[in-house]
Structures are given as structure tokens and as C-alpha cells.
Amino acid sequence: MWDRIKDQATRGLQQAQGARGGSGGHGPSGARSGGGSRAELVSALKVQLTSLKTELKSGAFRDASMAMCALVAAADGRIDPSERRHVESLILTNDVLQNFPADQLRQRFNKHVDQLSAGFVMGKATVLQEVAKVAKKPAEARAVIQTGIVVAGADGYIEPAEEQIIREACAALGLSAAEFGI
């Protein structure tokens, strides 16, 4: 699975760089090194997202990304305060999400976590609707999924419940989970 994510990240990075007229010395070779460790794969997705940073400034992307982060954080049906703080810190240090004021990110993330905490099944349906709002913008839709994978894999492992929630988000966006190796 990790090799497929790495290959997808590398292809996306190459496409993004090609659309900008070349790599500018920042080719995807780093994404290929190391034989596919989880940290390198998450790093490759971060690089890919960063290459699209100037294009990922819409409010819909912000809101869908915060919804995706909340879904990943609560993927097992619960979220403890330390996990909430951990994901919030990942959000606030994410290069692409720094396009937005920290207070906006915090507010939206916490709103979605609260919805999921109040009732996971109903909350999940509502939060997935927020994710689906970027479905008509393929670059943003893929970036939302990639953001979810980066957050899920930040600890070096993607839990089965996190993989499942990412698959559900892919379905809500009309994307194939296989595209992301999930």
C-alpha cells in the first residue's frame, strides 16, 4: 500500500511541477529514496501538497480539509483530548494550511470534532457532506484526501479505521481510493 501512495505522490508532484514548467531543482527523487518507509511517504505527500500551496486557498478547501482532519482524528468513533491537541498541532504546522488564519482552522476543526463526538454516525454524515463540497474541484478534492493521509500517517502508521474513513471520504468526493493506495 505504501509503495502505491509513494508512486501516486511522485506522479502528482511530477504533474504539478510539469504544469509549472519544470521542477526548479526540486524533483521527486526524495520521494523515491529509502524503499518506501512510512515517514518518507508522508513526506512525499507533504511535498506534493506544498507544491500546490498557491492553488489551495479557497474557503471550500479549508473547510473540507478541517472536516477531513476531524474525520481522521475520530476515525475509531472517539477522540480523546490529547489526540485532539495532537491533530490540531499537525494542522497548525501544515505548510499548505498556513494559507489560512490559525483561528479559522481551529474553529472549524473543533466544530467538526464536536459534531463527531456528539454522535459519531450522524456527525460523520454531516462532516462528510463538508468534505464533498470540493468534489467539483479535482485538485482540491485530491489535496483534501492527501491531507487526511498526511495527518493519519503522522505517527508512522495508518490505522485500519483511518483507512476506512479515508475510503469513505474518497467516495464522497467521487475519487477512487485505489488512486491513493487505500
Give an overview in words.
With 182 residues, the protein is an all-alpha fold. It has one domain. It contains nine helices and no strands. Helix 4 (59-73) packs antiparallel against helix 5 and helix 4 (59-73) packs across helix 6. The longest helix has 18 residues, at 2-19.
Radius of gyration: 15 Å
Q: Main sheet, how many strands, which sense, barrel?
A: none
Please state the oligomeric state of the protein chains shown: single chain
Low-confidence stretches: 12-35
What's the helix count? 9
Task: Offer a concise description of the structure.
This protein is mainly alpha-helical and 182 residues long. The chain is 68% helix and 0% strand. The longest helix is centred in the N-terminal third of the chain and has 18 residues, at 2-19.
How would you summarize the topology of this molecule?
Blueprint: H1 2-19, H2 29-32, H3 38-51, H4 59-73, H5 81-93, H6 102-118, H7 120-132, H8 138-152, H9 160-173
Helix pairs in contact: 1-3, 3-8, 4-5, 4-6, 4-7, 4-8, 4-9, 5-6, 6-7, 7-9, 8-9
Keywords:
globular, 182 residues
